């Protein structure tokens, strides 16, 4: 079974539904809890933004492209922007070095 057959069985417009992006956001949030590091959190924020866009509806979602590859590109750009924002928010202040005063093995 190839990808086009699977997409035909699922229906072609499922990626333009808010609940699909909401489920992806929840899945990425759970993965972030399992594998911390702000990687999946960026994906989760982008998927939440996509769900919000489709939940608002036609006034906002009307400017989005129709096909899955184009929506994946929008999702990728939102993911990169959210990851960069997270890196800027949670970085160390300039000139500060992380030091440890104790050893957990002692």
Could you provide a short overview of the structure?
The chain is mostly helical and 106 residues long. The chain is built from 5 helices and no strands.
Structural class: mainly alpha
Give the fraction of residues assigned to helices. Answer: 55-70%
Low-pLDDT residue spans: none
Strand content: under 5%
Taking Cα atoms only, what radius of gyration do you get, to the nearest Å? 19 Å
Sheet having the most strands: none
Shape, per Cα inertia axes:
elongated
Helix run count: 5
The string of secondary-structure elements, in order, is HHHHH
Number of strands: 0
Distance between the termini: 57 Å
Q: What is the arithmetic mean of pLDDT?
A: 83
Descriptive tags:
mainly alpha; 5 helices; about 0% strand; about 110 residues; elongated
What would your notes on this structure say?
This protein is mostly helical. The mean pLDDT is 83.
Give the SSE layout.
Blueprint: H1 3-10, H2 18-34, H3 39-56, H4 58-61, H5 68-89
Helix pairs in contact: 2-3, 3-5
